[in-house]
Specification:
Strand order of the largest sheet: 4-5-6-7
Helix content: 40-55%
Number of helices: 27
Structural class: alpha+beta
Distance between the termini: 58 Å
């Protein structure tokens, strides 16, 4: 039972729903704030007991909210709802997560209670629980309510998530309005919200869609907000719109987000079909070839392969892209790298053209090898800074986006050059992928690899308990491979270095040399961290190493002093094998601390 002053504080307050309706009415024809209205100050109500976590928290929430979900005629007042939710000894974030997974024995009763929560709740905490329930139980008639509540700070994310299933376009517009902090996007978002369809379409055609401006989440919301499928179905075909649609599809499939956004885009199959079938309307340019081939790479072994395709549909689209990109006009683009005849193309253009040649041969011409396991070292357009990943397909399905989804597969240098997937009788745990942010933040995908007689077994999987969608992660079984077939596929993937480029190959050769001869750095009390191409300057090889006094004698203090060094080697056109050999000779003969840059260290 609450104290009298608490009952007054609760009952004298309007519901948040009434509050936001009043604010929107007062706004009239004006524009409401993009980041929403701050909710009224809430009374501080004590929670009952210490904060609970885990199973105890789930049990407490079920016990407290159960009576609210028992029947449609159960009398529940706004005061009782607020008191019940406010008193739960569970933090708001976990409370919402538990509400998302509450058993709903009577969906009708639960929906009625959810509506009471969102319409009569006076605190963000109370309304959040109702929105979590409406994420599963919402109906089209709830769209105006959810749209209004999305204008309250602290409720926007939950309201938009509940809207996505009911009206993706409305949800996308509100998400973009709230999140589009980049100035380059604001004119397009404002045109979608307050301008004409013609204005929005014109801005979309001119909108930069590079990776720095548009991430995967933004790409999906833009496609939903503009009604991309409907725009593409119109005649005549606009090549500019076709190219922008392709770029949005490629952006959605990139792993720089908490989930594979292409799998959340309801029109993905239709838009992919429209882009590929009409791609002949595009001029043969390096940019257009890169967009189409990036799309093909994802149809081949990326998250786009996991879309609900009709039987044979995906294969037909890959065949169509192969026929187009292998035509003489498009192959000229690969050969010349987009440079004028007789002109020397810049290194970045040559690298992009080399990627076009390799990826098209691997994705559009090479037959898919038989067997349960495939390993494909691939990337999307390198001009967008896309990372190369060792893509793993089990029984023809891309493993990482299907069971993990929070980032890309690990690099070929790590999984293949390092020999981590080589199976031995001694079990070895291998990290196949890490979250795009960091493993400590959002987890990783790990498996134990072991050889058992004439079989190789992948077992004892470790991954986050839930998928990015909130659904429980699959309980992965042990995968058994014929050992001879496994070794052959691993040897094929390891021997295929067509995905690399001179600066990266130089780094791989330097790293292999230093790992084979650790004494080269150890004599200078140094130890290798990594050698590869610079992410920001891909045509520069970078060798990272640490200086730890006592390394040569094997007497390094656990918390002793250290320095971090970076040695940069810009590509000068020398073959990678010669450059790597020269670098190893210099390390052997000269103290690398004298010519590398010190970037960090202990005081």
């Amino acid at each position: 039972m609450s104290a009298p002053h608490e009952r007054v504080a609760l009952t004298s307050r309007p519901s948040l729903y009434a509050f936001v309706l009043d604010r929107l009415a007062a706004e009239g024809e004006g524009r409401p704030p993009s980041d929403g209205y701050p909710p009224p100050e809430e009374p501080s109500l004590p929670r009952e007991g210490p904060v609970l976590r885990g199973r105890k928290a789930a049990a407490a929430v079920r016990t407290a909210l159960g009576p609210l979900l028992t029947g449609p005629d159960t009398p529940v007042t706004a005061e009782a709802i607020d008191r019940c939710v406010a008193g739960l000894p569970v933090r708001t974030g976990p409370l919402v997560g538990i509400a998302l997974s509450l058993p709903l024995d009577d969906a009708t009763a639960a929906r009625a209670s959810a509506l009471r929560l969102v319409r009569t709740g006076t605190t963000v905490r109370t309304v959040s629980v109702g929105l979590a329930l409406l994420r599963r139980l919402g109906e089209p008639e709830d769209v105006p309510t959810l749209k209004a509540l999305s204008r309250v700070r602290g409720l926007t994310g939950l309201a938009v998530t509940a809207l996505e299933r009911l009206d993706p376009q409305v949800a996308a517009l509100r998400w973009l309005d709230d999140r589009s902090v980049r100035p380059a996007l604001r004119p397009l978002v404002d045109a979608l919200l307050y301008g004409t369809a013609r204005d929005a379409r014109g801005l979309l055609l001119r909108q930069p869609l590079d990776a720095r401006t548009v991430g995967p989440s933004t790409a999906r919301r833009l496609a939903e907000a503009v009604g991309l499928g409907a725009l593409l179905r119109r005649r005549p075909i606009d090549p500019r719109l076709l190219a922008q649609a392709g770029r949005l599809l490629v952006r959605m499939a990139t792993p720089r987000d908490h989930q594979a956004e292409i799998l959340c885009y309801g029109e993905a199959v239709e838009v992919c079909e429209l882009v590929v079938r009409r791609a002949c309307a595009l001029r043969p340019t390096l940019d257009h070839a890169a967009v189409l081939l990036s799309l093909a790479v994802d149809l081949h072994s990326g998250p786009t392969r996991l879309l609900p395709w009709r039987e044979g549909q995906r294969e037909q689209l890959l065949d169509a892209l192969g026929a187009l990109l292998s035509s003489p006009a498009w192959e000229e683009v690969y050969a010349e790298g987009g440079a004028a005849p007789g002109a020397d193309a810049p290194p970045a253009v040559r690298r992009r053209a080399a990627w076009l040649r390799y990826a098209s041969a691997r994705v559009l011409r090479a037959p898919e090898p038989p067997g349960r396991l495939r390993i494909e070292p691939l990337s999307r357009d390198p001009a967008e800074g896309e990372q190369v990943e060792a893509r793993i397909l089990l029984d023809g399905r891309p493993l990482v986006p299907e069971v993990f989804g929070r980032g890309a597969g690990n690099a070929p240098e790590y999984l293949l050059d390092g020999g981590l997937l080589v199976a031995a009788e001694e079990p070895r745990e291998v990290q196949l992928a890490s979250a795009w942010c960091h493993e400590e933040c959002c987890g990783a995908l790990r498996v134990t690899v072991v050889r058992e007689g004439d079989e190789v077994v992948w077992r004892d999987w470790r991954l986050p308990p839930r998928l990015p969608s909130g659904e429980p992660a699959p309980d992965l079984p042990a995968y058994r491979f014929d050992a001879a077939a496994y070794d052959a596929e691993l040897a094929r993937a390891t021997g295929d270095d067509g995905w690399s480029w001179p600066a990266r190959t130089t780094g791989r050769l330097i790293q292999a040399g230093l790992l084979a001869r650790p004494e080269l750095l150890a004599r200078w009390d140094c130890v290798l961290v990594k050698a590869s191409a610079d992410h920001r300057e891909p045509d520069t090889t970078v060798v990272w190493f640490h200086y730890r006094p006592g390394t040569f004698e094997g007497e390094v203090a656990e918390r002793g002093p250290w320095l971090s060094f970076v040695w940069r080697l810009p590509d000068d056109g020398t073959p990678p094998a010669l450059r790597a050999a020269a670098a190893l000779r210099r390390i052997e003969q000269e103290d690398p601390r004298a010519y590398a840059e010190c970037t960090a260290g202990s005081r």
